[in-house]
Amino acid sequence: MSSDPLASLGPSDLEEVDQLLESFVTEAGARCALLLDRSGRPVTAFGETGDLDETSFATLAAADFDASDQLAGLLGEQEFSALYHQGKNGSMYLAEIAGAAILAAVFDRRSTLGMVRLKTREVVPQLVRLLEELRERGAAGGRLDDDFADDAASEIDRLFKG
Q1: Is the pTM of this model over 0.90?
Q2: Which H or E run contains 62?
Q3: How far apart are CA 45 and CA 36, in angstroms?
Q4: Is 22 helix (H, G, I), strand (E, B) or coil?
Q5: pLDDT at position 1 over 80
Q6: At what angle do helices 113-139 and 11-28 cross, to 10 degrees?
């Protein structure tokens, strides 16, 4: 059993996350939003990500959260649940999701920190609920159908036969 709820993320779950990110980006006026796992891998993204190296971004954002957890400890806090970085032309707001993921919002002058924070407060509980469902699904065994291996072998044979 995996303690990583994202390991149980299926196609319909990913579609739900994508819809949440799309609504978030639209309502917050963000440039893009990414869902990252805490180990530094991008899960999915929505918005203007064309010039963004998602893998490097995810790795650095996860490291940023890890460093912030250490800083929080020095200040007597267990953790910081959100981080904000402001630049001249772009900013980002990172929010922890159930200890397993990070929501990263990248925004520019089309939005404000206040709007991004407001919309983050609305979407985070929805993402937490989904991750809790995934954890429960994983704890329940996450068993594949009995016919899965046969179906997978047949599909592999079909693909390689041309």
Answers
A1: no
A2: helix 54-74
A3: 9
A4: helix
A5: no
A6: 170
